């Protein structure tokens, strides 16, 4: 479903993403790992068509994102970093707007709203203004927006950021279940989530892919390492060293 | 899920328009607009003394000056707010062309001005009651005034695409609108022409021709010329094209 080839992004002289290639098929959940500033969000912004890559190609379900962005975007659901929302709307009206822009109207719209309110446990705040939501609820509202059209491809930038332990668990289960018939990429700093939800993980460091494989195979990369944490620390360079 | 350009534009328009009503800014602006148009007209315009109940020199005369400030005040949130909230990232990853969003939002702001202007209708009723005004200049006056407001809005839309700060957008837009107004102000143009060598007169006249004022006055006097309407339409188109460029550069 997602085919990315030789993706590169420069900001001025700085290379944020350098020659990244990967494929995610239906039924796969790919975890994006990497230190702060590694280029995870930048890669996701290119895959969703927000940033234009400096070079490289992106295909979503066979449709080229650069040549036919409107069609390619139809099958993507996206949760940006920091979960942006229109602060002057209620949860339900925000979700209604997202549905309408995607061409879901009338009865189908109310059905879609109810479905995602259920999935993200938002019924209680249905008519509350987005402005007054707590951080976790804001995050879940934006997450709900990303699945309102039941997309084939889901790109989630730190979907469990700011959630309480119960909600983290629920969201991981949700990602895992949806992963059965969708292609999903999500980024995270919580390495247990990789075991809990991913079929594959990719570690990015300073714009480059430094490891790619199943969670089990990643563990074998570093001799003697027992946890993903140790693997992560030994193959990515920390900011402390120059 | 079919993607219909008109339906998408309408969805954007609807959200933007409703968000104006959720914000106190709109009510403040409309009240100031009404007070300013009435105030200028009755006090400075000597509306009641002038024996011919003409709206041109009294009522519409003041509109450009009011729009210089209030136009940017209405438009400054158009794109800056999307940048500030980060919702631009949601919008630009949805299956729509940026044009649908640009046009949808612009129409929402334009409708706000249409309502503001419609509320000044009491002036017209007063005039009709006091005298027997010619409906021609009244209609062209309203059209000219509305086009002027849309011109200011288009300038503001363009500025807001480049900044996440509403304050920066407001200041830049007011400055641009003042510039576009003053370069065509008859007194200023004449004095510039007098100080410059005569060989430059045509250049100055041409620059002043590009100003809002030049085209506004002709129309507000009741001379309805397609050329002036086309002028404002092209200002709007240019403003929206620059908006598009600004949004693009932010996503580069
Ligand atoms: N709009 C931009 N202009 C200039 N540089 C940028 C821009 N966006 C990102 N960068 C740079 O690109 C690099 C990668 O940033 P990115 O946000 O992709 O990191 P990340 O892996 O998501 O980090 P985090 O884990 O902190 O979210 C960083 O060095 C960042 O400063
Ligand atoms: Mg990030």
The structural domain count of chain B equals: 1
Note the quaternary state here: heterodimer
Highest CATH level, the class of the largest domain in chain A: Alpha Beta
Q: Determine the mean pLDDT of chain A.
A: 91
Bound molecules: adenosine-5'-triphosphate, magnesium ion
Helix tally of chain B equals: 13
Q: What Rg of chain A is obtained from the alpha carbons, in whole angstroms? A: 18 Å
Largest sheet of chain B: none
Family (chain A): Belongs to the ABC transporter superfamily.
Protein name (chain A): ABC transporter domain-containing protein
Keywords (chain A): ATP-binding, Nucleotide-binding, Transport
Organism (chain A): Brevifollis gellanilyticus
Task: Please summarize what this structure is.
Chain B: This is ABC transporter permease. The complex is a heterodimer of chains A (242) and B (252). With 242 residues, chain A is an alpha/beta fold.
If you had to describe this structure to a student in words, what would you say it looks like?
- The complex is a heterodimer of chains A (242) and B (252).
- Chain A has helices spanning 40-47, 69-74, 91-101, 106-119, 135-146, 165-178, 192-197, 215-221, 228-235, and strands spanning 2-11, 14-24, 29-33, 55-60, 63-64, 76-79, 153-157, 183-187, 200-205, 208-213.
- In chain A, 36% of the residues lie in helices and 25% in strands.
- Chain A has a 6-stranded mixed beta sheet, sandwiched between helices. Chain A has a 4-stranded antiparallel beta sheet with strand order 2-1-4-5.
- Chain A is globular and about 55 Å long.
- Chain A is of the alpha/beta class and 242 residues long.
- Chain B has 252 residues and is mainly alpha-helical.
- In chain B, helix 2 (24-44) runs antiparallel to helix 3 and helix 3 runs parallel beside helix 8.
- Chain B is globular, with a radius of gyration of 19 Å.
- Chain B starts with a helix and ends with a helix.
- The mean pLDDT of chain B is 85.
- The interface between A and B is medium-sized, with 31 and 27 residues.
- Bound molecules: adenosine-5'-triphosphate and magnesium ion.
- The site of adenosine-5'-triphosphate has 11 residues of chain A, from helix 1.
- Chain A: It holds the Pfam family ABC_tran.
- Chain A: Keywords: ATP-binding, Nucleotide-binding, Transport.
């Amino acid at each position: 479903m997602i085919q990315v080839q030789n993706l590169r992004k420069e900001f001025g002289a700085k290379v944020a993403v350098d020659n990244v290639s990967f494929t995610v098929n239906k039924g796969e959940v790919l975890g994006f790992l990497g230190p702060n500033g590694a280029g995870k969000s930048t890669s996701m912004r290119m895959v969703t068509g927000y940033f234009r890559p400096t070079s490289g190609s992106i295909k979503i379900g066979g449709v080229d994102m650069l040549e036919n962005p409107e069609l390619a975007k139809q099958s993507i659901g996206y949760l940006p970093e920091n979960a942006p929302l229109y602060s002057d709307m209620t949860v339900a009206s925000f979700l209604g707007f997202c549905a309408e822009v995607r061409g879901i109207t009338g009865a189908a719209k109310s059905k879609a709203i109810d479905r995602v309110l259920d999935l993200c446990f938002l019924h209680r705040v249905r008519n509350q203004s987005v402005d007054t939501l707590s951080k976790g609820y804001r995050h879940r509202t934006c997450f709900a927006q990303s699945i309102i059209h039941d997309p084939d491809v889901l790109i989630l930038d730190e979907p469990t950021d700011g959630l309480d332990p119960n909600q983290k668990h629920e969201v991981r289960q949700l990602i895992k279940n949806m992963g059965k018939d969708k292609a999903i990429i999500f980024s995270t700093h919580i390495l247990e989530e990789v075991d809990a939800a991913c079929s594959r993980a990719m570690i990015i460091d300073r714009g480059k892919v430094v490891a790619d494989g199943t969670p089990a195979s990643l563990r074998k990369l570093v001799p003697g390492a027992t946890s993903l944490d140790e693997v992560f620390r030994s193959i990515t360079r920390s900011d402390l060293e120059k | 899920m079919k993607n219909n350009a008109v339906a998408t534009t309408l969805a954007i328009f609807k959200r933007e328009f409703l968000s104006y009503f959720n914000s106190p800014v709109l009510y403040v602006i409309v009240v100031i607009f009404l007070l300013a148009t009435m105030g200028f007209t009755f006090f400075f315009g000597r509306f009641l003394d002038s024996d011919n109940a003409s709206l041109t020199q009294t009522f519409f005369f003041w509109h450009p000056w009011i729009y210089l400030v209030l136009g940017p005040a209405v438009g400054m949130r158009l794109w800056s707010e999307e940048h500030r909230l980060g919702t631009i990232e949601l919008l630009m990853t949805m299956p729509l062309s940026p044009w649908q969003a640009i046009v949808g939002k612009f129409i929402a702001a334009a409708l706000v001005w249409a309502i503001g202007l419609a509320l000044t209708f009491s002036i017209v009723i007063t005039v009709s009651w006091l005298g027997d005004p010619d409906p021609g200049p009244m209609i062209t006056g309203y059209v000219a005034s509305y086009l002027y407001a849309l011109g200011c809005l288009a300038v503001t839309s363009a500025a807001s695409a480049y900044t996440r700060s509403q304050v920066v957008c407001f200041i830049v837009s007011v400055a641009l609108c003042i510039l576009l107004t003053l370069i065509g102000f008859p007194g200023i143009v004449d004095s510039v022409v007098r100080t410059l060598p005569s060989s430059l007169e045509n250049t100055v006249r041409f620059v002043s021709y590009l100003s809002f004022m030049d085209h506004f006055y002709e129309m507000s006097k009741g001379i309805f010329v397609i050329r002036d309407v086309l002028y404002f339409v092209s200002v709007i188109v240019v403003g929206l094209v620059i908006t598009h460029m600004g949004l693009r550069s932010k996503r580069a």
